[in-house]
Each structure stands twice: as C-alpha cells, then as structure tokens.
C-alpha cells in the first residue's frame, strides 16, 4: 500500500520513535493503518507553546494531518485519541508496551503487509496493558505476543507434534522445539530428524502455560515462557528486540510470581 499522491493526507498513527532534529523540531517514526511505517517531521514541537507536543508521545495514538514533503512528510495537525496513561505509570506495563511498539516497527517494511490488522493488533495489546489489573499483565502480554505471531504468520505449534500431528503428552517432562520448523515434537521424533539442528528443550509445564496463559496453572514457569517467546522472536526477526532485556529483568526481580489466576 502506498501513500496517496495528493499533497496532504489524514490518518491514524501510533508513535514508535522520536528523535531530536535541530533546535525545535523532532522526527517521528509512526505506524499508520493506511500507509504502514512513516517518517514525519514535526516543526517547532519543542517550543513551550507548541500544540503538537502530544503527537511525539511514545506509544500514543493520534489522528494526524500531514503535508507531503521532499524527504519527510510534515505533521501539521494532530488530535489525540489514546495516551495510555496507566501504562506509563508502571514499569512492567511500559516495558511490554515498548515491546509491542518494537514488534510493530520491525514486523513489516514501509507500506507492506496488512497494515490495518497490525495496527489494530498493537492498539488492542496496548489497551489491555493499560486497563487490565496487575495480576493479569503478564498473562495478557504473553497472550498478546502469541496473537502477534499468529497475525504475522509465525504462530508456533505447541500442542501437537510438528511431524505426526499427534497431541503432545504433557505428562512428559519436556518436549523439543525447532524455531525453523515453528513447532514442537517428542525427543524420539527429534532423533529421527537429524537434518534439523536448532532444537531446544521446553518443559511441558511451559508449553501448557503458553497454550493457555490466562489460566497460569504453573506460575513458576512464567519467566521460562517469556524467555521462550524471546528466543522465538529472535529467530523470526533475526535480531533481539531491546525491550525483552528489560522485561526479563523485571520478571526476575518480581519472583516469586503471583499465584494462579482465579477461574
């Protein structure tokens, strides 16, 4: 999808990145459901009386009006829609919010993919992180990461053997997962497929938690589940997203993790 050839346009955006430019301007990287990833310049935004300052708030959702420019389009008007104030008041919520900003930033190139679906998925994740109670934040974030993998076509197969299609026996201590295949199998099947070299072992409790994060029957495996999602995301994106380091540090500090959620 490409930006309209008209001299101006109006669209929704999520602000993903903001950098200083000159004495009073900023350059924003935003994501639009209409045009994908865009670079916008906001002139005079650092001046005390600027009416555009809110447009540069990280993770904020706005409707913006832009004029086409030679290299960067110019943001000239904005109307705030969602600011996610509660998310900004808690470090773990914010860390997960930044993760979904990074996922959106790196999922597709400019104008590629289904921009509306990616935009809606990110907004929905931020809304949940902003409103859900503390006890639900980690299960919500894990569910949202798995949903993101589904949106992008990388949903891992965690409940059945990637080779045979048989349901995995979760009474076993562990199973094996291959990021290149995108699925799990038994240790016996792993040994029958020697050409695959990127196996890791994943406990059955972690697999059960990933299959239904909201039940959280195995709270001591939450950190392991998040490490698994980082490992798989590293493969999918070919790089480690910066937010994961903060998330894992915060989860490690917060142990023991809260008990299982009520039914």
Shape designation = elongated
Number of continuous helical runs: 8
CATH architectural grouping of the largest domain? Up-down Bundle
Q: Termini distance?
A: 44 Å
CATH superfamily descriptor of the largest domain: Recombination protein O, C-terminal domain
Largest sheet: 5 strands, mixed, barrel
Order of helices and strands: EEEEEHHHHEEEHEHHH
Query: Mind telling me the C-alpha Rg?
Result: 21 Å
What is the CATH topology of the largest domain? Answer: de novo design (two linked rop proteins)
Oligomer: single chain
Could you give the count of β-strands?
A: 9
Unreliable segments of 5+ consecutive residues: 256-263
Structural class category: alpha+beta
CATH C-level of the largest domain: Mainly Alpha
Give the spatial strand order of the biggest sheet: 1-2-3-5-4
Q: How much strand?
A: 15-25%
How would you explain this protein's 3D organization?
There is one protein chain. By secondary structure, the protein is of the alpha+beta class. The protein has two domains: 8-83, OB fold (Dihydrolipoamide Acetyltransferase, E2P); 87-253, Recombination protein O, C-terminal domain (de novo design (two linked rop proteins), Up-down Bundle), CATH 1.20.1440. The protein has helices at 85-88, 91-107, 115-131, 137-151, 187-192, 204-211, 222-237, 243-253; strands at residues 8-21, 25-32, 36-42, 61-67, 73-82, 157-161, 174-178, 183-185, 200-203. The strands form two sheets. Strands 1-2-3-5-4 form a five-stranded mixed barrel. The chain has a four-stranded mixed sheet with strand order 6-8-7-9. The longest helix has 17 residues, at 91-107.
